[in-house]
Every structure is written in C-alpha cells, then in structure tokens.
Specification:
The chain is an alpha+beta fold and about 210 residues long. It contains six helices and eight strands. The protein has two domains: about 100 residues, LON domain-like (Archaeosine Trna-guanine Transglycosylase, Chain: A, domain 4), CATH 2.30.130.40; about 90 residues, no CATH class. The strands form two sheets. Strands 1, 2, 3, 6, 7 and 8 form a six-stranded antiparallel β-sheet that branches. The radius of gyration is 22 Å and the shape is globular. It holds the Pfam family LON_substr_bdg.
C-alpha cells in the first residue's frame, strides 16, 4: 500500500539497521525534524546519485535530538528501519519546505546461506587483518548481516546502491563474495609492495638458501 513520507536526499547510502548521526542546519530539514517529533513520523533518505534522487531509499526513525543550538540547528540520532521505492517524488510536500514521496515498502528475505557465510567470514577476516581492523571483525556478532559490514568492504557509493537494490540476504551474500574475491588479492598485493618499499634502504638479515 503506497504511503507518503518526508524525504531527505543525501549523497550516501544508508543500510537497514544502521544508526546515523546527522547535523541539521537547513531550514527545510529543521522543519522536517520538528514534524517527525510532533507527529511521530519516519522519513526517507534516498541517495542523491548522478545528479538525481534515486528510486530506492532507506526509511529512518528519529531516535533523539542530542543538541539544539541557539541558531536552530540540531544534532540528531536516527536508525534505519527498511527500504522503499519512490513511486512519485514531490519537490515540496504540501505546505512544507522539504521534499516528500509516495513510496512502497520493499519486502526483504532475510534467509542466508550458511556455506556462503563461512566463506565470507574468512575473506572478511583476511581483509580486516590486512587493513588493521581486526577488532571490528572480532566485535561482529555471529548473526551479523551483510548490511552490518557493507560500509567496510571498499564498495563505491554506486556499488552500495546496488547492494541496496538486492531484496534478499542470499543475493547480498553473492554480491559481497564476488566483490571480495576480486578486491582481496589486489589489497594483499598492495600491502606486500608497501612492506617491500618500507624495507628499501634498510640492512636486511636474510638467511641464504642451502644448495
């Protein structure tokens, strides 16, 4: 069933479950936050890509206003709750400064493939070890979803949007596995070359081979 929600286009992709902190300074979005508080509204963040508002976006709920400035600016905390598709975009909601859209909620299949999860785990461990992010990997709960690691896999914004288009965890697993199989060898080789460059000019203690 289509419904109309306020929209806050941004140059980024937000994934369901993600917590996002925002500094609100434009009058139209200060009005949007006030309306969310007064009417318990959610709002949508569609990525602004290629000079346009994307068809898909992420619905977020306002959690709290952390700080209200004398200027009227606000620091807010939000949490993403789902994905929607814009049927019709309105540059201004009726009687409002901010944009809005008639949207449909996208249903998602959360079932994953345990075998793919094992392979992804190994690749992610290698990636995070190489980049010095091992603590992030160790802090991941066993039940983590692809959305929980998507911002730390080296995706471009356009690739993150493709991930947002996937309507099942299985599809996202396949996309991430293919991405890691392509980029991990490049990252490992880059780190190896950096290590060699750091050794240039240093005295090397090498054990010669026996022959």
């Amino acid at each position: 069933m289509p419904r109309t929600i306020p929209l806050f286009p941004l140059n980024l992709v937000v994934f369901p479950g993600e917590k996002l902190n925002l500094h609100i300074f434009e009058p139209r979005y200060r009005q949007l936050v006030r309306d969310c508080i007064e009417s318990d509204l959610t709002f949508g963040i569609p990525p602004f890509l290629n000079d346009g508002v994307s068809e898909l976006g992420t619905e977020v709920r306002l959690l709290s206003v952390e700080k209200a400035y004398d200027s009227g600016e606000l620091d807010i905390k939000t949490k993403a709750v789902g994905v929607f598709r814009i049927r019709e975009f309105y540059r201004e909601a009726p009687g409002k400064l901010y944009a809005a859209g008639q949207v449909d909620t996208i249903e998602d299949d959360p079932e994953e493939d345990p075998a793919l999860k094992v392979r992804i785990n190994e690749y992610v461990r290698q990636l995070y070890d190489t980049l010095g992010l091992r603590k992030i990997f160790l802090d991941l709960p066993p039940s983590y979803r692809i959305y929980d690691i998507a911002h730390n896999l080296g995706f471009s914004t356009e690739q993150e949007y493709q991930l947002l288009q996937a309507t099942s965890e299985l599809e996202r697993q396949a996309m991430v596995l293919e991405h890691l199989e392509n980029v991990l060898p490049i990252i490992l080789e880059t780190e190896r070359l950096k290590d060699r460059a750091r050794l240039n000019g240093h005295f090397k203690n090498l054990t010669p081979p026996n022959f």
